[in-house]
Design a protein that fits this description.
It is a single chain. This protein has 154 residues and is of the alpha+beta class. The chain has a single domain, classed as Alpha-Beta Barrel (Multidrug-efflux Transporter 1 Regulator Bmrr, Chain A), CATH 3.20.80.10. The protein is 23% helix and 39% strand. It contains two helices and eight strands, in the order E-E-H-E-E-E-E-H-E-E. The radius of gyration is 15 Å and the shape is globular. It starts with a strand and ends with a strand.
């Protein structure tokens, strides 16, 4: 796992926001599929296309539940509609790492990244997100999937 400091531009995220039980991975998978489909359809209704790969934005630290928005970065301006929100992925300094492999091995990368973040004594902002750069929609081999993990800094 290689983590690096980056400087980000703020972006709009159009998606669906829900609180999901962490113990129910099937519930998370169902939510992600539904949220990505809803966000893509809403972008199309507004005459827009995703401005990047699918994203899951996590609000706060997960406990037995996680507050998550799943959708796509959107060009400005995009209008929220019932059941669909527009949120801002913050700009500024951040730490990012790329996880390569299936989604069920993300916990190993998070373990390494969290240990590295603790060693660095960085001041993390609230929330973080995952960007699904390569996944099952474009690559059948899970060993080649890539997920960018982003932790904004204060």
């Amino acid at each position: 796992m290689k983590a690096e400091r980056v400087e980000l531009e703020p972006r709009s995220l159009l998606g669906v926001r829900e609180t999901i039980k962490m113990s129910e991975m099937s519930e998370m998978s169902d939510f992600m599929g539904r949220a990505f489909g809803t966000a893509a359809a809403e972008l199309g209704k507004q005459g827009a296309f995703p401005a990047g790969p699918a994203i899951s934005m996590y609000h706060g630290m997960p406990t037995d539940t996680v507050d998550v928005t799943a959708g796509f970065p959107a060009p400005r301006p995009i209008t929220p509609t019932p059941g669909v929100v527009v949120e801002t992925l913050p700009g500024g300094p951040a730490i990012e790492a790329i996880h390569t492999g299936p989604y069920d091995t993300l916990t190993q990368t998070y373990g390494e990244l969290n240990a590295w973040l603790a060693e660095q004594k960085l001041d993390l902002a609230t929330g973080m997100w995952e960007e699904y750069l390569v996944g099952p929609d474009t690559e059948p081999d899970p060993a080649k999937w890539q997920t960018r993990i982003v932790f904004p800094l204060r």
